[in-house]
Design goal:
2 domains; about 650 residues; mainly beta; Cytochrome Bc1 Complex, Chain D, domain 2; Methanol Dehydrogenase, Chain A
C-alpha cells in the first residue's frame, strides 16, 4: 500500500469530517502521527477499509483532535459525497495520492448505505394539502429583508412576543443519511421550501403537518439556504438553492421542476462554494462566491494557494451573468518557495461565504470577506466592502483586521510548509461570516453593522465606510467570536458569541453567550453568558458538552424576541429589551417523526432557524468540528 505523507493523510480525513465546511480557515489540528495497525491486530473478516482508516485517520478522529468529527459522524456521509470530494472537490490533491482501489475501499468503509426515497414517498401529502400557493410570502430568504436584518414582525411571521414564550412541538421530520442540518427555508402560503442538507433533496413541506408536497433531487449535497424570488417579468417566481459543487439551481416552486442549473465558480479548475444565500432584487440575483484554497494549503506539495472570493450578478429569470466582482486578481507565482521547495502562488483568499445586504436607495451592495490564504496579503481580506449594484464596481472598503493570512497548514503543534511566518502574518483566521446590515435609527441616522470571528462588532457609516464605533467580546479565533452574523431588534444589535472553552483559559474570560448593544453608540445593553449544562444525561447525549456551549447559529428576532441556538443543542428565546429568557428547549434528544425516520437532535448551528406562517422551524444537528450530530427538522407552534 502506498503511504500518504502525514499532512496529506490527516488533511484527507479532516476534510471528510467537515465535508460541508462553512468556515474558510477552520480546520482540525493535525497533532499526531497516523496510527498503523498490523494484520495480526485486524480480524480476518474486517472490512479492508478499516486498515486504511486506522492507518491514516484514527489518530485525529478517535480523540486525537478535539475539532475533528467522530468516527460515527464520518459514517453518516454518502459514497457520492466522499467520492466527489476525493476526485473533483477540495481534497482532490490529497485524493490523487491514493490509488483508485484505496480510495474506493476507504469510501466503501465509511459511507452509509444508499438511502431510498421511501422517507419521502411515504410522507406525501393528501390531495387537500398538496396544492401550493405562494401568497403571502412569509420569509423569502434567511435575512428576512433586503438589508438582511434578521428581524421579523408579528404580521410577517405569524408569531407574537407572547406566543414565543409558550411554544410546543408541532412535528419533527427525520432526514436519513445526514449528520447535520445547516439551511434556512423559504416560506410562502402554507409551504416550507427546505434544502435538506447532504440528502441532496429540496422538500416542499406543508407547514402544519410536515407532509411532502414535492421533492427535488439536486444530485449533490445542498449547501446554502433557499431563496424565493419576487415576480419575474413573465409573472412567475423561482426558488433558488446551491449545492456542494458550487452549482445554483433554479426550481419552479409550484411543481419542483428544474428551470435551469448554472456553475457558480469564478475561476475554472479552482474549487469554489456557494455558502451565503443569494439576494434577489429588481429581476437580478446577487450571488456570493467562496473560494480560497484554505484546505489545500495543508498539503506541503500544493502550490499554495489559489481561489478568491467574488459576487455574481445574474439575470434572475435565465441565470445569465451580468457582472462579476472579485476580491483580488487571480493568483500568480510569487517567485517564493515553501520549506520543501514547492513554488508558491498569491494573492488568494478573501472568500465571501456570508450573504450580501442590499441598499437600493444608494444602489449599494454590502459584502463581508474572509482572510487571505497565501501571501501577499490584500486589503480586501477580513473586510466590509460596498459595491455598485449596477456595475459591481467597488465604492468603498473597510478592512477590519489587516495581514491575516491563514490556511490549513496553520494548525497543530507545528505549522506546515504553506503557513506564512509570524513576521509575514498575524495568522488569526478572523473571517466575517455574517452579513453587514444597514439600519436606520429613530433620529434618521444610519449604521452598517457586522460581527466578526475576532469577537468584534463593527458599526460603519454606509455612505463612506468610516468607523462609527466598535465593540469586542471575547478573544475570537477559528471557532470563536461571531460566526454566522448578528440580528437587529429595534434600536439594538444582538451579537451571538461562540468562544469555546480550552487553551487554558479561565472561566471568567470565556464570553460565550448573547450580547446586546445600542445601535446609536455601541453601549452595552445586556448580556447572557452561557455555561455548560451537562446534567440529566446531557454529558452522554451532547459531544463536548463541558467545553462547547456557545452560540454560533445565525440568530432571528421576531416581534421583540430573539431566537438563538446553542451548539450544545439548547434552543433559547430572549426578550430583546431585557435579555430575560422567555423559552428554552433541549433539542439534543430523540424524536418521533412524521415520516417514521429514526431521528435525534444535536447542535444548532449555521442558518438553521426560521419562522413564518405562525410556526418556528429549527434544524437540529451539526456534525462539524466535533459538535453533536443530528438529523431533525423541528416545527414549533404556540401552545394550544
Amino acid at each position: 500500500m502506498r503511504r500518504l505523507t502525514y499532512p496529506a493523510a490527516a488533511a484527507l480525513l479532516a476534510f471528510m469530517a467537515s465535508l460541508t465546511l462553512e468556515l474558510p480557515g477552520v480546520a482540525p489540528v493535525l497533532a499526531q502521527e497516523p496510527v498503523s495497525q498490523s494484520a495480526s491486530e485486524t480480524s480476518s473478516d474486517a472490512h479492508p477499509g478499516e486498515d486504511i482508516y486506522q492507518t491514516y485517520c484514527a489518530a485525529c478522529h478517535e480523540g486525537g483532535d478535539p475539532r475533528a468529527a467522530s468516527f460515527e459522524a464520518l459514517q453518516s456521509m454518502t459514497a457520492q459525497a466522499l467520492h466527489y470530494t476525493l476526485t473533483s472537490g477540495p481534497m482532490a490533491i490529497q485524493g490523487q495520492q491514493l490509488t483508485d482501489e484505496q480510495r474506493d475501499t476507504l469510501v466503501d468503509y465509511l459511507a452509509i448505505a444508499e438511502v431510498s426515497d421511501e422517507w419521502i414517498t411515504s410522507n406525501l401529502c393528501a390531495d387537500d394539502r398538496g396544492t401550493i400557493s405562494l401568497s403571502p410570502v412569509h420569509l423569502s430568504h434567511a435575512g428576512g429583508d433586503l438589508a438582511f436584518s434578521r428581524q421579523l414582525t408579528a404580521a410577517q411571521s405569524g408569531l407574537s412576543h407572547e406566543d414565543l414564550g409558550n411554544l410546543e412541538l408541532a412535528w419533527a421530520l427525520g432526514i436519513p443519511g445526514v449528520g447535520g442540518l445547516r439551511s434556512s427555508p423559504a416560506i410562502a402560503g402554507e409551504t416550507l421550501f427546505y434544502p435538506a442538507g447532504a440528502s441532496g433533496k429540496v422538500l416542499a413541506l406543508h407547514v402544519e403537518s410536515g407532509c411532502v408536497q414535492w421533492s427535488y433531487d439536486a444530485g449533490a449535497a445542498l449547501r446554502g439556504s433557499a431563496l424565493l424570488s419576487g415576480a419575474l417579468d413573465d409573472g412567475s417566481q423561482l426558488l433558488y438553492v446551491s449545492d456542494e459543487r458550487a452549482r445554483l439551481h433554479a426550481v419552479n416552486p409550484l411543481t419542483g421542476e428544474r428551470r435551469w442549473l448554472i456553475d457558480g465558480t469564478i475561476d475554472e479548475g479552482v474549487h469554489s462554494r456557494l455558502t451565503g444565500v443569494p439576494m434577489y432584487h429588481d429581476q437580478r440575483l446577487y450571488v456570493p462566491v467562496s473560494a480560497s484554497g484554505v484546505q489545500r494549503g495543508g498539503e506541503p506539495t500544493h502550490e499554495c494557494c489559489d481561489g478568491r472570493g467574488g459576487v455574481l450578478a445574474l439575470d434572475a429569470a435565465s441565470g445569465e451573468r451580468i457582472w462579476t466582482y472579485v476580491t483580488m486578481p487571480p493568483a500568480k507565482y510569487t517567485g517564493e518557495r515553501n520549506s520543501v521547495g514547492v513554488r508558491l502562488r498569491g494573492p488568494s483568499g478573501a472568500p465571501i461565504w456570508s450573504s450580501p445586504g442590499l441598499d437600493p436607495e444608494r444602489r449599494q451592495l454590502y459584502v463581508t470577506t474572509g482572510e487571505n490564504t497565501s501571501l501577499p496579503a490584500t486589503e480586501t481580506s477580513n473586510a466590509i466592502i460596498a459595491l455598485d449594484m449596477d456595475t459591481g464596481e467597488q465604492r468603498w472598503l473597510f478592512q477590519a483586521v489587516a495581514n491575516d493570512v491563514w490556511n490549513m497548514a496553520c494548525t497543530g503543534r507545528e505549522y506546515g510548509p504553506n503557513c506564512p511566518s509570524e513576521q509575514d502574518s498575524i495568522i488569526k483566521d478572523w473571517d466575517f461570516g455574517g452579513a453587514a446590515i444597514r439600519v436606520t435609527l429613530a433620529d434618521g441616522s444610519e449604521r452598517l453593522v457586522a460581527g466578526q470571528k475576532s469577537g468584534h462588532l463593527w458599526a460603519l457609516n454606509p455612505d463612506n465606510g468610516e468607523l462609527v464605533w466598535q465593540q469586542r467580546v471575547g478573544e475570537g479565533g477559528a471557532l470563536g467570536g461571531n460566526h454566522w452574523g448578528v440580528a437587529i431588534a429595534g434600536d439594538k444589535v444582538l451579537l451571538p458569541i461562540n468562544d469555546p472553552n480550552g487553551g487554558g483559559r479561565s472561566d471568567d474570560v470565556i464570553k460565550a453567550g448573547v450580547h446586546a448593544f445600542e445601535l446609536a453608540d455601541g453601549e452595552p445593553a445586556w448580556s447572557y453568558l452561557s455555561r455548560p449544562d451537562c446534567a440529566n444525561g446531557r454529558e452522554e447525549r451532547v459531544s463536548g458538552c463541558q467545553a462547547r456551549y456557545g452560540f454560533s447559529a445565525m440568530p432571528l428576532v421576531i416581534d421583540g424576541a430573539l431566537v438563538a441556538g446553542n451548539i450544545d443543542g439548547r434552543l433559547f428565546i430572549f426578550d430583546t429589551e431585557t435579555g430575560q429568557i422567555l423559552f428554552e428547549y433541549d433539542t439534543a434528544v430523540g424524536f418521533d417523526t412524521v415520516n417514521g425516520v429514526a431521528a435525534r437532535g444535536g447542535s444548532i448551528d449555521a442558518q438553521s432557524i426560521a419562522a413564518g406562517a405562525g410556526m418556528l422551524f429549527v434544524g437540529s444537528g451539526y456534525d462539524r468540528f466535533r459538535q453533536q450530530a443530528g438529523n431533525t427538522l423541528l416545527a414549533f407552534r404556540p401552545a394550544r
